[in-house]
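Checked the freezer inventory, then went back to the computational side. Two predictions to log before the end of the day. The first one is the construct we discussed on Monday; recording sequence and tokens without edits.
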Amino acid sequence: MIESDIELLKGIANQLRIHSIAATTAAGSGHPTSCCSAAELVAALFFGHMRYDPKNPQHPNNDRFVLSKGHAAPLLYAAWAEAGLFPTDELLKLRTLESDLEGHPTPRLPFVDVATGSLGQGLGAGVGMALAARLDGRDYRTYVLLGDGEIAEGAVWEAASFAGLHQLNNLIAIVDVNRLGQSQETAFGHNLKVYADRFKAFGWRVETLDDGHDLEEILEVLSGVGLGSEPLVILAKTYKGAGVSFLQDRDGWHGKPLSREEAEKAIAELKPAARSASGVSIPSPTPVSAPDSTPPGAFAPLSYKPGDLVATREAYGTALVRIGADDPRIVALDGDTKNSTFAEKFAKRFPDRFFECYIAEQNMVGVATGLATRGKVPFASTFACFLTRAYDHIRLAGISRANLKLAGSHAGVSIGEDGPSQMGLEDLAMMRAVAGSVVLYPCDAVSTEKLVEQMTLHRGLCYLRTSRPKTPVIYGNDEAFPIGGAKVLRQNPGDQITLVAAGVTLHEALKAADALRAEGIGVTVIDAYSIKPLATDLIRDAAQKTGNRILTVEDHYAEGGLGDAVAGELADSGVRVKKLAVRELPRSGKPQELLARYGIDAAAIAREVRAILNR
């Protein structure tokens, strides 16, 4: 690149600093010094290297950019404004209620693929995007800008390991090593060798920039992107607050905007060398057609027989294969549990669309989220209890409005002898709390397969809870299971109470209802397979016919699961809701013993019904 181009990029970097300072001062909050440290890196990427259509951020072959250090959002917004996507005046609306330029990036903005700001998650999402490019035969590259502080997160190294194993040479991580964290210096300061050795150990090609503000050096390193078979990490030694004499490399400025007087002083220092990016020629992406995102019109039929004993976890694997044969958008991921979740069925049938994530659940969710941004429909599975360690990633996927599908198997005490560390007993509460989530809990093979179909067709984050024990098929193959629905399985005039259950305890509720019927006690039984959204009207109507009495039964802790969902939805309806759930720390034992021990088997349900009616 000629000297005049280098000088132009230096000027653009200063203009990005000015925008970042002005915006955060106008907002009265933000992270201007974190923006300043990465200004040259972003200027080089957006105006000297990346291939993208600045008027169409979602062009299917644009190079992708993920700001993992999401607190530097004003810098990202400034780059897109300078690229001409929207007027630079909009930057002064940063962090206001009317603006989509939020404190940390979210996909409300067309140039943001995934929400960031909970540090350590951007690289995993970038891995998913790079995998999608490989799957689709596209030549776009994915760039992830990280801060050195977030390198302490284990999720970063899960992603680094995965990228190295898959030799994703279309993935470029850039670490802004500015030395200063929020409250003190980072663990390794400016020691680039520590970071270099660690990335090399995970199979990455490493380039170091001793001066991360030297644009000529930055561009020289970027010119080697794509060489070799490894992912590339660029470690750039930078200074927080760079470019402003009274901020540069000064501790105590993290997350603090400048006062109006300080901002005027800083901008006066930057302005003589600042240049607009208007008119800069940005390399165009290679033309490609948009991916087909249309779901199939119909799926192959089911062929179960009433009474067949099939675990819902196995039906999940069968469904993935059946639906995946008709829908090439579907990909599957698992965390070294595929022979228990039965995702192995999909892996054997479609090995190119299956990704073994090993025992790294955070990264599994991050990669799945990244795949979803590029038009894939990712199903990620593991034991329900292990998804708890990925919860922050799931939470951020909700904020990203990701089209993510999660399957948690081995839920509840019904798994048996493995004991409490393996029993998912918090997952319904956890998943219900995620923004925009759908939470589903089938009781048999038919409902499982039909709900996997619904998950495929529904755009958004869905969670499917599956069970370890084999349960009998109770539904016909043509039965429909819409999200937000429920099934009334027992109902007669004169019923005295409504039982609401799902999954394993639905079968226990049916046994209890039959036993109570023999005693002359009529019981309505509802399969609440859709826990969020709940079939509130159907359940309320049933309760009103049974004296406004409901008993919920669940293989889950009492807090936040099915019982709380029902009680919460019907709180203003005059309906009395009693909950049967696991109320103490469980222990190992046989499944049926444990259901009885913790008061959620048929006998316990019948006892509770009698007690309620005798009060």
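The second is the one RB wanted added to the comparison set:
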Amino acid sequence: MDLNTLTYLVVGATFALYIGIAIWARASTTGEFYVAGGNIHPVANGMATAADWMSAASFISMAGLIAFNGYGASVFLMGWTGGYVLLAMLLAPYLRKFGKFTVPEFIGERYYSDTARIIAVICLILASVTYVIGQMKGIGVAFSRFLETDYDTGLYVGMGIVFFYAVLGGMKGITYTQIAQYVVLITAYTVPAVFISLHLTGNPLPQLGLGDRLLADGTYLLDKLDQLVVELGFHQYTTQVMGNDLNMFVYTLTLMIGTAGLPHVIMRFFTVRSVKAARSSAGWALIFIALLYTVAPAVGGMARLNLMDTIQTGPVGSPEGNLKYEERPEWFKKWETTGLLKFEDKNGDGRIQYYNDKNPELSQKAEQEWGWKGSELTVDRDIMVLANPEIAGLPNWVIALVVAGGLAAALSTAAGLLLAIASAVSHDLLKGLFMRNMSERAELRASRIAMAGTVLLAGYLGLNPPDFAAGTVAIAFGLAAASLFPAIIMGIFFKHINKEGAIAGMLAGIGVTLFYVFQHKGIMFIPGTAFLGDLPPNWFLGISPNAFGAVGALVNFIVAFLVTKVTSPTPIHIQDLVDDIRVPKGSRTHVEGAH
């Protein structure tokens, strides 16, 4: 069976499954729409959480980042995994015990302020919409390859699918759909990795194959990759860092605390019966997540090696050293139709020159000695996971499975984010503040309208994303890190932080982060500050905008504590509420002076 037919069958079967589940599990109450009725089994919730967590950035972009940034991209592995542990250990059980549907609801009640709740909603929407843009990019990439069309058309089709099953099912439908999506995406991610590892090294475990010897010449895989990329002017794969060491550290920290502040994952812990079940589901989710995250470095490294071996067919600079464009393989032609892989024959020799033309020494040598006029190949790093099985020549059914997995990853997280945004609008703003007498039916309708509007907005922004998928997602994590994470941590562990401190902290944290991100992008939105447009990139200690969230979080903490010191103390009943959140039920004793 040809690849196109097989891909349509596999993807069509998975979509039929998702839509069938959405119809079967359609939410009929707000409790089912927001928290799936609150009785999901911990193992099932762990699997759904893993699917919710492992987005297009994890499935599609992370390995692409590793492929092109080598060791430097380990910030994503360490940051996202460490952040999930932080969430499971420090936040989820306490928020589950508090028993509210949403993060803004927790912040509003803990800080006894409708203003704090509104600011939390704004921060949530900013972070979540930015995150959804990344998912829409992944959806567009996957659908464009699946349908063999341009990226924009692929995105429009993906929007329609997300709109149908997310708006219809709410958290109940999304939960059961995400369980199915996890099975699809983890199978689609690991099976090709096993095949490719066996083909390259003879080792069936990709995690070990990455450090093993190549069957072709007996050299270590990573040594061969280092040699190839250095010859072509790129940084050494195994020692490359993203910026400087401080940026690596701050980037990792931003992803960690941003993870713990993202509302769509926190909401998943309200779908189980108890605090104990929340802890259990967090443990299961970590196991399910690890199945993909431990394989990602191998997928990225092997994808880069396969790509370089395809393009670089002989010694660098030799007449026969580069692939003839007319002899390019079929996978190359198919990805060209998406616009995500582009070739421009700058020197007219009909061969594909792919090298780092920003390397002055190599660029000069390439032009003077080899007649090259610059790198002729543009590769969108988001295509690497989806293209890797085709580059490696794997069977058609494996290629079709990977396409289905990429779509499952993007769709599952997009649905969770859309629900978080819809909940913030309908439950926190309308029901919680402006229309307190709203009926349950009206609230459910408002949630679906809000979700539909978010799909359209995210799709529009996804047509021109501010960065590749994981980069856009990193900005979302930075916004969550700078605004929501400190407010949640202080709300649980610092009972004396008052509403004035929390409000000032959130505004300061997200304000300084947005300023750094947008000033870096050259968008000066503050009158009279145009002179800042001349600042060099990463001007603050070499920290990149995607990594700046940790700095914003530090500003948030400092401002919150300082403002709390000079304003009225937190009411006693709120301090008691914080104590109740942290102390296990039935074990609290009255300590003299506590009241």
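For RB: The longest strand covers residues 341-343. The CA atoms of residues 113 and 499 lie 6 Å apart. Let me know if you want it refolded.
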